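Let us practice reading a record.
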Amino acid sequence: MDFNVKRLAADAGTFLSRAVQFTEEKLGQAEKTELDAHLENLLIRAENTKQWTERIMKQTEVLLQPNPNVRLEEFVYEKLEKKAPTRLNNHELLGQSMIEAGNEFGPGTAYGNALIKCGETEKQIGGAERELIQSSAINFLTPFRNFLEGDFKTILKERKLLQVKRLDLDAAKTRLKKARMTDARAAAEQELRMTQSEFDRQAEITRLLLEGVSSTHAHHLRCLNDFVEAQTTYYAQCYQYMVDLQKQLGSFPSSFSNNNQSSVSAGASSISVPTIPVSASLPNPSRGSSAPSGGFHELRSSSGSRKARVLYDYDAASSSELSLLADEVITVSSVPGMDSDWLMGERGTQKGKVPITYLELLN
């Protein structure tokens, strides 16, 4: 019991001595042992590394997940060590809406079919984005977080201990200066030697840890390369998905395609992006200048019907017309009094006028 009391008293005395030394240093009433320049530079570099690592992590998280509410929810689930519920990202939600709209308007219409194609591509981009986030979290954010929660916390702990040892050393120096009696001076000198040894040892431990920050930089450089590679893969996938989509939409009527191409050219004339060739000479039924082949003449002069292959997608302009999809086969026939540039088309129970310039008669 007496031993514990003495130990508590000694600890209280040590704490008080450190507090007095710290206060007098702040007031300029006591000398302070300065760390060597190399150690000071290492401390500054470590602190800068910590601050910039936190900032880069934060901005990366914002880039990967712009929604702050979702980030907060993911943080809470991570702290609770539970798996966050899977939710569709913005690209996947847009894709789902487009597909549902396309099915509502009808996959057999040009607009409905285009919506479905765009929706499927948006969902592909959403999947690629999900892979980017997962790869970045594992190969980039996690190593950065491990440094902050592991290595830097150890550095911080040893740095605080070095500060304590320095206060003990300077307090011992002050007591030695104030010692007048021979015995007191001898005790103070012995204490100074002991505190100097402990300070030197702690300074060496701290220095070794701080020099390890160079290895941290090398590791973070590899992580940065992984992050760039993940982004490269993501953007390459997105570009390829959009190129493929543009090719699929390239068979739309020229009025739509030309408007689309001109708007792209006007907005990105300085960017070298491969363009998907779209025929500028697609037939337009409103022109009425294309000469029908002999087969169409024969069909119009007879009362029979023929099979015809659709050359291009066509979006019906009114309820009396029939929308067409490229490469589908329909039945066509002539109706007395109908304009020479049109035929009556049938697809199952659907029936309506179709432009002959979009058709190729089959034998």
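A brief commentary: The two ends are 112 Å apart (CA to CA).
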